[in-house]
Amino acid sequence: MAIMVNLDVMMAKRKISSNELAEKVGITPANLSILKTGKAKAVRFSTLDKICEALDCQPGDILEHV
Amino acid sequence: MWTKTRSLMLSRILVAGLFFLLCVLVICIPFIAKWFDAISVGKGLIKGSVTVPVCIMLYICDIFAFAAVISLNRLLGNINRDSVFTEENTRCLRIISWSCVFAGITFAVFSVWRFEFLFAAFFACFLGLVMRVLKNVFEKAVEIKSENDFTI
């Protein structure tokens, strides 16, 4: 897919673990793993909003078009 | 009280019954062919006794019927396990569809002995077409489900 998810980069920058982020966002660690590995086919705005809030970043910091 | 579980159970019983019927048919095919030859008044391009052609036709169609019934049973088993929109179920529907079409082709080929087999050929091909459309719907549903499952 042409959209890359740089979630792990932002997580490393913010020094936050997967479990912690999953808990803050309100999704399961399994779903977060799907998102991190780029297997996800779509991301809800509500999920993106929570991720940006938890990582204090912009959607563009997480998603990249290649 | 009529429930979904009971409806599924009835379908499985009917499929098991059909399987049993097909097993009986395998044994009785020579007798059925002889009986058909005795009562048949239809015409075909090839004249003469139809015992052997009907025998061969029924044996071939029985193979397709077995394939379809086994797939039906697998499909019902998967539905029972709440695994509905899966690749395996699509494959089952594809097998059923092709079985019907091949049975239809078999009937069409053997209609040179009796033209009335063309009716059976038409209905088998029609059923095959219906199953094919159903398979296409299932295929699309599997795709949509996969997209839904991977929407975070």
Secondary-structure element string of chain B: HHHH
- Structural class category of chain B: mainly alpha
Described by its quaternary structure, the protein is heterodimer
Report the mean per-residue pLDDT of chain B as an integer. Answer: 92
Uncertain stretches of 5 or more adjacent residues of chain A: none
CATH topology tier name of chain A = 434 Repressor (Amino-terminal Domain)
Poorly predicted spans of chain B: none
Q: What structural class do the secondary elements of chain A suggest?
A: mainly alpha
Using only C-alpha atoms, the radius of gyration of chain A works out to 11 Å
First CA to last CA of chain A: what distance?
9 Å
| Gross morphology of chain B | elongated
Explain what this protein looks like in three dimensions:
The complex is a heterodimer of chains A (66) and B (152). Helix content of chain A is 59%, strand content 9%. Chain A contains five helices and two strands, in the order βαααααβ. A two-stranded antiparallel sheet of chain A has the order 1-2. In chain A, α2 crosses α3 (29-36). The longest helix of chain A has 11 residues, at 45-55. Chain B is mainly α and 152 residues long. Chain B has one domain (4-149). Chain B is built from four helices and no strands. Chain B is elongated and about 70 Å long. The mean pLDDT of chain B is 92. At the A-B interface, α3 of A face loops of B.
